[in-house]
Amino acid sequence: MLKIAFSPIYKYQLPEGHRFPMVKYELVPEQLLYEGTVTQSNFFHPEPLTEDQILLTHSPAYWNKLQEQKLSVKEVRAIGFPMRPELVWRGRHIAQGTIDCARYARQYGVSLNIAGGTHHAFADRGEGFCVFNDIAIAANYLLVTGEATKILVIDLDVHQGNGTASIFQHEDRVFTFSMHGEKNYPLRKERSDLDIPLPDKTTDKPYLKILKETLPRLIDEVQPDLAFYLSGVDVLESDRLGRLSLSLQGCKERDRYVFQTCKKNNLPVAVSMGGGYSPRIAAIIDAHANTYRVASEIYL
């Protein structure tokens, strides 16, 4: 059974001029339903995170600022969105969706969140369109509840998972792996447990070669009982923020290899969607939909 986290609140629209990054959260599930990859029965609607869950990862001071909408102009600029209570509420649903996906992944092998992958959020601040760090929140919560004991974060978004790396820098039970554009955002990188910076214009063949040389070895060494996979499609050559040069097929093969490797190792994997900023919205939707198509092929 393919379980996919999605709620109408994911479609919350920002003011004109900020809307483009958000449209895909509405269009991806519509595409998957239209083509028959999934049915309505595959979707579940996550509830919002509780305050206790948030405070396992984010600082009380930051949480209070979000609740009271008292972020400074500089803090709002770093996030990149005009802050509204609806955006905080949306983030709480998304992060709970990632927790729920991890639980479904343990049951079915894989589960996917239509949103998430907010890896630029630190414990005490947001950055880069990220308010809460959904994977960090889910990992910390599952460690506390005992539902996971060793976690591997597979971050293949084109941008380094700097917030995730920072949050888990002193947590041996979470291994952070980020394969990203060397010269891309963020300018100042944090230190993941394993960082693989890639030069501009990296194409399918070298990208996939590095991934295939790295992921099986990591699983062998880390021995995780749960993986989080950040499947950003901003690695595409067409992406206006990406700087790498993967084809649509190469991005699909990336997803296929991650899923096949996790399944081969009996490693449950919870997927968060991550970034995608190609000028043509159809290219973004197709690339993200490929992640769900491949998951359906491999696990069903």
Structural class: alpha/beta
Strand content: 5-15%
Mean pLDDT: 96
Record field, number of beta strands: 8
The CATH architecture term is: 3-Layer(aba) Sandwich
Q: List the helices and strands in order.
A: EHEHHHHEHEHEEHEHEH
The strands making up the biggest β-sheet line up spatially as 2-1-3-8-7-4-5-6
Largest sheet: 8 strands, parallel
GO molecular function: histone deacetylase activity; hydrolase activity
Pfam families: Hist_deacetyl (PF00850)
Keywords: Hydrolase
Protein name: Histone deacetylase
Which descriptors would you attach to this protein?
8 strands, 10 helices, 8-stranded parallel beta sheet, Arginase, Chain A, globular, histone deacetylase activity, alpha/beta, about 300 residues
List the helices and strands and how they pair.
Layout lengths: L2 E3 L14 H16 L7 E2 L6 H4 L5 H9 L4 H7 L5 H24 L1 E4 L20 H12 L5 E5 L6 H6 L6 E8 L12 E5 L5 H19 L3 E5 L17 H17 L4 E4 L8 H19 L1
Parallel strand pairs: 1-2, 1-3, 3-8, 4-5, 4-7, 5-6, 7-8
Helix pairs in contact: 1-10, 5-6, 8-9, 9-10
